[in-house]
Amino acid sequence: MGNAERVVTLLGDSLTAGYGLKSAESLPRQLAARLASETPLVRVIGAGVFGDTTGDGLQRLDRDVPAQTDFCVVALGANDMMQLVPTDHVRDNLLSIIDKLHRRSIPILLCGMRAPPWFGAYAWAFDAVYPEVARAASVPLMPFLMEGVALQPAYVLPDRIHPNAAGVGKMADTLAPHVRSALAALRTP
Fold first, then answer.
1. N or C: which terminal CB in the chain sees fewer CB atoms within 10 Å?
2. Is residue 1 over pLDDT 50?
3. What is the pLDDT of residue 183?
4. Domain layout of the chain by residue ranges
5. Tens digit of pLDDT for each residue in 122-178?
6. Residue 163 to residues 100, 121, 154, 176, Cα–Cα distance (Å)
7. How do beta strands 71-75 and 108-111 pair?
8. Phi and psi at residue 89, to the nearest 5°
9. pTM tops 0.90, yes or no
10. Are 109 and 179 in contact (CB under 8 A)?
């Protein structure tokens, strides 16, 4: 393959779409900038839709994950959590998303979400979904997309939920090594 461009698609929600931010501050753009320094010829496609649940992502996957995608980052579930969608539905939707991508021969990184502790028993059940899905589907897991960002006033917008530009930068810093190593694995026969 040599110098062929690699396409990374971020299938997500407002966290990947850049809610309340300029386009240049969004996760696809900040991730692309971080990858460009060490991994040339990578194009990052943002397929994040505000308000999407795992069910919404499953429904639009074939339309929004282009055929030329070499690697897909699946970052869905925050809205399921906010709506208290039953965790078995979240699990089934994520497994179906992964299955559809596998049938298209697209490798995946699953990005976990975590519920705040005040969600009680739902938080425990929800937080267990991502490691369980990653094990069941044999896909790599980044445990929490918003690690070090969620609930940190310096990294979130005034709504106290969505990351600000600095928060997205921190997310991109954490995500970039996962994507870089996945792309490196694609290059080896």
1. C
2. no
3. 87
4. 6-187
5. 999 999 999 999 999 999 999 999 999 998 999 999 998 999 999 999 999 999 999
6. 29, 25, 9, 17
7. parallel
8. -70, -45
9. yes
10. yes
Angle formed at CA 73 by CA 70 and CA 78, multiple of 5 degrees: 160
Q: Which helix (H) or strand (E) holds 7?
A: strand 6-12
Distance between CA atoms of residues 112 and 83, nearest Å: 17
Which pair of structure tokens corresponds to residue 172? Answer: 């991109």
Q: What is the pLDDT of residue 9?
A: 98
The domain at 6-187 falls in which architecture? 3-Layer(aba) Sandwich (3.40)
Both tokens assigned to 116: 């705040």
Distance, CA of 76 to CA of 49 (rounded, Å): 10
Long-range contact list for 56-61, CB < 8 A, 24+ apart?
A: 57/11, 57/12, 57/13, 57/93, 57/97, 58/93, 58/96, 58/97, 58/100, 61/11, 61/97, 61/100, 61/101
Q: 113: buried, middle or exposed (CB in 10 Å: 19+, 13-18, 0-12)? A: buried
pLDDT at 3: 60
